[in-house]
């Protein structure tokens, strides 16, 4: 392992999982960490998310050769500025943010003398905070690394090795392409899930209690995604605005076409659209990106009760 | 138990699960079944979904005191006509369809001399066919019964008792209200999931392979719902057109408002919308309608591998 001291700024789901994963899979590396919330720092120390929870971001990075910013996309620039004076010159700077162009720009502006290689592990749950992390979050998930054109190839290789050690498969792409791909596989799904849960909350002729009771018909799946951290997701949409709006436009066109098919009673069009989608599900399961058990295995669990 | 012979027309996920649930929870009742597909009949017999798989729908219902139609909403009327001559006069007619006004009308028109009490167990998985069913599908799920105004109260009570014996909680409502509630908790989520999976399949600048690889960011949840039976869902949208279009209109308005907030950079509006939705998730878990484990427990499973 090329990194001996890893500083983690932000000890929520991602930061906490990285800390625990390093302990599990890279036990010789030392970890330090900082979180802006005193309560989260205390809890992080109790759970042992990192070897040392520091009281300032500067203390956390002072001996680091890798610092990973695990804060919401909109807070990356400020978090980076807070460590600038203390950050060793050789320390590699990375992050786990869900948008890459804006974050690369913000980290680069705050730390112009450091090598910055942004990254995004495509892994998570709907939970957040210092209790949410676990060591195997990244296992068999993809981590997308978006090196700048002028990247240090040795440091890039070290970062790739780091994520592979944590169990992830690594893919390299440009920040522009990352932002387009994630707009469709992650950002648009979250936007739609937040929307429909909001729509269902505001109805007059269907009560909230009915929405909750009959949620097993499909709605409950959306509430899981819509339970994700609101601060982070606000920042994702603001920091990847163009790609999200582009994908949203495509989605709206497709939805309008299905709406019209329903209105005019075009069953053939509906059937043709609906039967296309099973193949994608099958591929996702074959490639190990989802659970093959029906209903995500919920029924296995319910059966055990 | 008030029913001694139960005929199940359609031996897919719902029909097969009812058959297995009757065996498990009402072992003294006899079940007969029919499916329009010879291959499905053969498989149903192999799995023992019902005590007797019949070669015609008429044979299946000849001695029944309850017949449950478990076919797609658009096939209910024809399935009912096929049993009319053989159906005993006292036999109660019910179904499991996802829309209730259109099905009540179709079953009533086909069987004008029988008591028809439609029902809808709000339970399922993305799988379909004779291999999809399991006995505990209905446990702790809601079954909505929509009796006509002139219902036979004793038969209604028998049907409620039947579903409770299978583990469901029963709620009574009008077919109109059912169709409105399910439009938001089930039909709209499915329409949106089918749409987004279609949108993601048709992009030029993001490949299908990328959509699959990075689906763990949220998209994979939608592919599960969009893997549901296309024939059934075509019929659901056609048979509950008005309520679906009403809910879709509300959803589109809300999505447009969020789109505008992203475009103008209104982070406060986004945050306010996103933070409202966690409470609903919490209630759904508290009421036992979803799994409390993060990511539906997927990570527990992956950890075991």
Kindly name the structural category of chain A. alpha/beta
Let me know the CATH homologous superfamily of the largest domain in chain A.
NAD(P)-binding Rossmann-like Domain
* Beta-strand content bin of chain A: 5-15%
- How would a textbook summarize the main sheet of chain A? 5 strands, parallel
Task: Report how far apart the termini of chain A are.
Answer: 43 Å
- Spatially, the strands of the biggest sheet of chain A line up as 3-2-1-4-5
Strand segment count of chain A: 8
- Which chains share the greatest interface? A-B, 113 and 113 residues
Shape of chain A: globular
Second-tier CATH architecture of the largest domain in chain A: 3-Layer(aba) Sandwich
Protein name (chains A, B): Prephenate/arogenate dehydrogenase family protein
Keywords (chains A, B): Oxidoreductase
Domain Prephenate/arogenate dehydrogenase (chains A, B): 4-292
Biased composition (Basic and acidic residues) (chains A, B): 290-305
